[in-house]
């Protein structure tokens, strides 16, 4: 198996290279990739230009595939491959994509364990904007002073789609604003997620509305500070997309967001997800 891994930054990000494309579709490769995702948070496969079938094959080799987004898109590709686009001819409700301009984790407000990993292929790369930024909440938690770690233990945040879309609520057409804002469930999650292997990450991002038992201003200020802490250069990575790039990231230990871009750029990503095996646990 001729797959090589080269770290991009000290705490986050690894670039993948290979001798033969077929090397990426073996059981040995799947195990190595999954382990490296858990270790390094973000894997980048430069300009590999996967087909939907190949992306699904890698997705299913890493674990059970899961569909997160309601089938609103008018698309002709595989129903398990979600097209991330602001093109209203394909996506008649682009508000959810606009919401990805802000730090978030996938699947935090649904009634199942959050996805282990998200996989994204670049089909159309914009000339301006549209980069994806990642922030490791594993590394960010580990970097906190011990007294701050202790202060976070036992705290829970309330998460909702409404909270995550609040920065763009005024841009949602009034005729369906309430329906869009109230999709999904309202969920309570511990701020610190203790995983089955003992590692700890933080469950933060714009879905987190307030902290249980704390005055709303103070709780929201804490959530903002934690997101800012995780987004500092030591724990974060910005990926400038080229057509054909493929990225996998550990959704259970990272926030991500898209740098804003105009819909006229035609930016198009194909997304799949690997189901999670762990519910968020204190």
TrEMBL record:
Gene3D superfamilies for the chain: Clavaminate synthase-like (3.60.130.10)
The keyword Acyltransferase is assigned to this record: no
Annotated family: Belongs to the TfdA dioxygenase family.
Gene Ontology molecular-function annotations: dioxygenase activity
Organism, as annotated: Novosphingobium beihaiensis
Keywords in alphabetical order: Dioxygenase, Iron, Metal-binding, Oxidoreductase
TauD/TfdA-like domain residues: 7-272
Full protein name: TauD/TfdA family dioxygenase
InterPro entries reported in the protein's UniProt record: TauD-like_sf (IPR042098), TauD/TfdA-like (IPR003819), TfdA_dioxygenase (IPR051178)
């Amino acid at each position: 198996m001729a797959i090589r891994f080269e770290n991009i930054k000290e705490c986050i990000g690894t670039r993948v290279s290979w001798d033969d494309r077929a090397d990426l579709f073996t059981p040995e490769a799947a195990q190595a990739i999954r382990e490296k995702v858990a270790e390094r948070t973000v894997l980048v496969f430069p300009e590999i230009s996967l087909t939907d079938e190949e992306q699904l094959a890698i997705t299913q080799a890493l674990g059970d595939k899961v569909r997160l987004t309601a089938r609103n898109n008018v698309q002709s590709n595989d129903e398990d491959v979600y097209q991330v686009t602001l093109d209203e001819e394909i996506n008649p409700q682009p508000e959810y994509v606009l919401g990805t301009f802000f730090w978030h984790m996938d699947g935090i407000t649904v009634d199942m364990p959050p996805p282990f990993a998200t996989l994204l292929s670049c089909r159309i790369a914009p000339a301006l904007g549209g980069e994806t930024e990642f922030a490791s909440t594993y590394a960010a938690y580990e970097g906190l002073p011990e007294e701050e770690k202790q202060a976070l233990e036992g705290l829970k945040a309330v998460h909702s789609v409404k909270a995550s879309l609040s920065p763009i609520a005024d841009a949602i057409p009034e005729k369906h604003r309430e329906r869009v804002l109230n999709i999904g469930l309202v969920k309570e999650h511990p701020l610190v997620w203790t995983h089955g292997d003992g590692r700890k990450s933080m469950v933060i991002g714009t879905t987190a509305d307030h902290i249980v038992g704390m005055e709303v201003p103070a709780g929201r200020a804490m959530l903002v500070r934690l997101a800012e802490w995780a987004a500092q250069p030591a724990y974060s990575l910005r990926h400038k997309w080229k057509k054909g790039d493929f990225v996998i990231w550990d959704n259970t230990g990272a926030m991500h967001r898209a740098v804003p871009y105009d819909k006229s750029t035609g930016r198009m990503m194909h997304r799949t997800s690997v189901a999670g095996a762990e519910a968020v646990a204190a």
